[in-house]
Amino acid sequence: MTTDLTGRVALVTGAGTGIGKGVAVELAACGAKVAVHYNTSDAGAKDTEARIRALGGECMLVQADVSRKSEIERMAAQVIERFGGIDILVNNAAQQLNIELFEYDETAYDRLMHVNLKGYWQCMQAVIPSMKARGKGRIVFISSVHSKRPTDFDPVYAMTKGGMRMLCRESALELAKYHITVNAVEPGAVDVGKKSGKPRDIIPDEVNGDVVTKPRDVLLRKFPMGRIGLPEDVGKLVCYLSSDASDFMTGTAIRMDGASMLL
Amino acid sequence: MITDADSDSGEALVRAFAQETGANFILCGNPDGERMQASLACCRSAGVRAMAADPDLCSVQAVDALLREARDTLGPVTVLIHNRRRIEPIRVEDGDEALFLHLLDTHAKSAFVCTQAVGRQMAEAGAGSILFVGSIHAEKPTGSSFAFSVSQGALKMLAKEAALTLGRSGVRVNTIEMGPVEGDDERFRSDVSALYQHYRFKVPGAQLGSCEDLAACALFLASNKARYINGADIRLDGGFVLHYLDHKMKRDSQRQEEADRR
């Protein structure tokens, strides 16, 4: 059974690449009108748009730097002007710099905090009025298993995800009175078509969909299902969290990692 | 090195460490304030040396400069206690960006900068203990100061990352998640969470925590008795966050409150 989001309007940040692209396409496949946000990945955003149009879906592109409140507000206004309001916000645009503890400087630290934490918060601020006016709303954070387990390759990334864990819980409590739900998805390693940041050894070298060329016994040491996640895995869960079926679910974080964090 | 040494908790930490360990101190806070003067007097009477300074703890340069100065006079830092607690009401819906960043920086960025600066020194020495005085609000939402909780969530993950990175150089990093103390019902007054209503009685033992409880826990974690504790979150709340059924609370009568006051 496909989740029905017909007539709903979704804003997906960072939808030009990776998980955000998969989420945007899955939401469109469920009938939602999708605002595809991007910052620098305009070619990727056009690809997301093409995929949605191929499904017969409706979408728009919107550019913004989510570390700046003024740009977030402009983005939300553009979406509301075009689609009449916003029902679903998927906070996904985040950075991972893969810098070690002693190598971080203030500029890099601030950049991550401003995009990953302040950005998620202010994107919510920008859509809450529209959701209030509509009497309900759905907000989904794409977080990470690293909201709870350290990365050992980017301490500030994990700090932003730890902060995001609390931002989700606080927002769920505060916005419940408006019938706005706030939930998080915590993916593990996901095949985003490229390695994020500098190379790291937790992602297998060769991944092509669910066909993995690493020896299966090597892969199983990190990934019990024999593969890493795909953007559409995350997208399908986001569709559920955006639908009426999840009406009583708020303030939760769902780990979606093929059980790799149990190892 | 103890940050915010001129706060209630800071004073208790200084007192305990001066009396029990004989350590020398770098005390961060207003050097000219009465409370810092009291902490310095406490150090003098315990026969230990101390310097007080008020650097911008979010500035790598300022913290590095303080550490260089301290190394010459007091020696390298062996224990860092990052002890900051600023609670301001702020809502998700209409919160102000400057206040959000202020709360985030006060708790998380300053901890990051201190961990980098002190951690580098400790890693070179191959030993050390870093303690973050955090909060139960790294897990439990406040319903009143979302930016405080966000900062505590970030702090908790910093501790875990640093426990890995610095742990390989003999440095332990732990978090004390402080629970309710007197006055927290006002500090965390909320219109969406009943967490702090009858907060004293939600502690199974019906007693709030104190700065002395914090100091005792910190003394243990900083000592060699805790040599195998690394990357841990020690919840210091008397069991407060385990509370579920109001009707089973120990006592919640006027009489009990009066008895407590006496």
Structural features:
heterodimer; A: 263 residues; alpha/beta; seven-stranded parallel β-sheet; 16% strand; B: 262 residues; Rossmann fold; four-stranded parallel β-sheet; two-stranded parallel sheet; 9 helices
Description:
The complex is a heterodimer of chains A (263) and B (262). Chain A has one domain (9-197, 230-255): Rossmann fold (3-Layer(aba) Sandwich). Chain A is built from seven helices and nine strands. Chain A has helices spanning 18-29, 42-54, 69-83, 106-134, 155-175, 216-220, 231-242; strands spanning 9-12, 33-38, 59-63, 88-91, 137-142, 180-187, 207-208, 211-212, 253-256. In chain A, the strands form two sheets. Chain A has a seven-stranded parallel β-sheet, with helices on both faces. In chain A, strands 7-8 form a two-stranded antiparallel sheet. In chain A, helix 4 (106-134) links the parallel strand 4 and strand 5. In chain A, helix 1 packs parallel to helix 2 and helix 4 runs parallel beside helix 5 (155-175). Chain A is globular, with a radius of gyration of 17 Å. The relative contact order of chain A is 0.15. Residues 198-212 of chain A have low confidence and may be disordered. Chain B has helices spanning 8-21, 34-45, 60-74, 97-125, 146-167, 184-187, 199-202, 211-222, 254-261, and strands spanning 25-28, 50-53, 79-83, 128-135, 171-178, 233-236. Chain B is globular. At the A-B interface, helix 4 and helix 5 of A face helix 4 and helix 5 of B.
Distance N terminus to C terminus of chain A? 32 Å
Tally of alpha and pi helices of chain A: 7
Number of helices of chain B: 9
What is the CATH homologous superfamily assignment of chain B? NAD(P)-binding Rossmann-like Domain
The CATH topology of chain A, please? Rossmann fold
What's the CATH architecture of chain B? Answer: 3-Layer(aba) Sandwich
Number of strands of chain B: 6
Might you state the CATH topology name of chain B?
A: Rossmann fold
Class from secondary-structure proportions of chain B: alpha/beta
Silhouette of chain A: globular
What's the main sheet of chain A like?
Answer: 7 strands, parallel
What top-tier CATH class of chain A fits best?
A: Alpha Beta
Q: Provide mean pLDDT of chain A, rounded.
A: 92
E-strand count of chain A = 9
- How many strands, which pairing sense, and closed or not: the largest β-sheet of chain B? 4 strands, parallel
